[in-house]
Prior knowledge:
The structure is a homodimer.
Chain A: H1 3-28, H2 34-43, E1 48-49, H3 50-57, H4 61-73, E2 77-81, E3 89-93, H5 95-116, H6 121-142, E4 144-147, H7 153-169, E5 192-199, E6 202-210, E7 217-224, H8 233-247, E8 252-257, H9 262-270, E9 274-276, E10 287-292
Parallel strand pairs in A: 7-8
Antiparallel strand pairs in A: 1-3, 2-3, 4-5, 5-6, 6-7, 8-10, 9-10
Helix pairs in contact in A: 1-5, 2-4
The first copy, chain A, binds a DNA duplex through residues 33-35, 49-51, 59-67, 69, 81, 85-89.
Amino acid sequence: MDETQIQQVRRFNRVVTQRVGVLHEHYLGRDRPVGEARLLWEVGERGQDVRQLRERLGLDSGYVSRLLRSLEDDGLVVVEPSARDRRVRTVRLTEAGRAEHALLDARSDELAGSLLEPLNAGQRARLVAAMAEAERLLTAATVTLDAVDPAHPDAEHCLRRYFEELAERFDTGFDPARSLLPDAGELRLPRGLFLVARLHGEPVGCAGLKLPPDAPAEIKRMWVAPSARGLGLGRRFLAELEARAAEQGREVLRLDTNKTLSAAIGLYHSAGFQEVPAFNDEPYAHHWFEKRVARRVEG
Amino acid sequence: MDETQIQQVRRFNRVVTQRVGVLHEHYLGRDRPVGEARLLWEVGERGQDVRQLRERLGLDSGYVSRLLRSLEDDGLVVVEPSARDRRVRTVRLTEAGRAEHALLDARSDELAGSLLEPLNAGQRARLVAAMAEAERLLTAATVTLDAVDPAHPDAEHCLRRYFEELAERFDTGFDPARSLLPDAGELRLPRGLFLVARLHGEPVGCAGLKLPPDAPAEIKRMWVAPSARGLGLGRRFLAELEARAAEQGREVLRLDTNKTLSAAIGLYHSAGFQEVPAFNDEPYAHHWFEKRVARRVEG
DNA sequence: TCCATTCTCTGACCTTAGTCAGACACTGAG
DNA sequence: CTCAGTGTCTGACTAAGGTCAGAGAATGGA
């Protein structure tokens, strides 16, 4: 990795933790502990199960319980058993809690304003644009790719959303029964693998790789959630699958796609795939691509 | 202020405090408390007075003392009376302390690397560019402008540097005695004022305003430290002085300058100043400018 | 020389943040 | 109905981070 890039990132980290980080805690926790304030914020207008709160903030169950008790004593939240499962308890804001939440919201605005305030209009516009770019790319860097079993709930969630989207976009609709679908076993090692992309634990994309013993490796069911598009995730899936195919000693990677998926087709071209004649008779495919696998792929 | 800008800044703050802030603490304080690690870092290769450490980190004197004791017990620093003033104690790293410092340095590199690592080369370049821009503008927004007495040490420091720079840049050198210098009283209210710009407490620029009762307001001795150039500070001084002149009921602002200060001349033009015939006989001036003061000036 | 001031340190004290081991209530499969 | 598992809570504990009021040494100007 480039040394000057590292140095720039470090300068950024220093300035930002000072200017944003410290102020952030200061604004947030002006009259209550930061932990309580974060929890109150996370409960939000719509309420949350205790379990979700614990997970999102990454806190110990005993600790969350105590924080909630303290907020309850201050009359900011009520905690009551969930209707569906009486072990689960759900938290919602009281009127006073909503007011406190609005106060935190206003403070967050205030902090943002204080960052822009000393700048003139041109500088503000440039700062906001740079922040948008940095935010987008940092978010992209936060996405993790993990190999999971295709029966994993996150994998199933992605596949369901994927099929829904195909049904909506294809001129002909989409019926999984008519398509050449690999069975789950074909996307499990050693016959294949299945990747899920997650952002803050939520699944936001998937991609499968078939590794048939007697044919080239094949990419199947690549999908990126609408909320995660524009993060370069498709390209990252391709690179990751290519690296994994290389690890398995494969030299060729191929895939088929539908003509309505124009963004994907553009991606395949720009990632070095060449269009080839049909290598299968998938009824929903209009284009077939192939790529010679690179020995080593950089990040 | 623009609502969509505020929202973008808030999104940025959220992503960055999560991604950078949390990781930062995690990397920094892996095997010692964050407070100690920060202090050790701040001591640095060259050593520091206890007083400076306290000021830079904004910590209580008792607390710093205790942290230093703990670092001393671990053999990482030595604390000894300063030669100049035996009340002051100075801290420097031991050999072990230097090693620990290097470790923190390496971790900081590691953190920076982990932010870039999941991205491809193009994304990395764009992230680093956006970070550089954001860092520069956040730094610019951190600079404060305060009216001070022209005899204040920070004001004198700036003026000394200003004269040194003029002496170096003017073809003819610069002798303050030959120039039309306002005496200090002319840069004190009600006859004038003097602004100092500071970044993290350090003076990085100055600008004076003369408010003679029988003549237009006049900008004098505007200077920006080389380390703080490119932050739009000159433009900010002009806007601030214009606003203050307007507050004092002035309608015209003027100034003179030397031909070698081409960046300043460009700034005056772009800030709406018009070149006018000489209105004084300052021997070091080649250009004279004037501007009608706006009623209200935006940030 | 005296005295107010400056600088650092110590002791006493406090809150926040967090961990861990159980206790208890509830659920769902068999 | 039983029982293993799940979700939450309580009590007991710890470390980190910090505040405050002096004590004591050194300084610098009158």
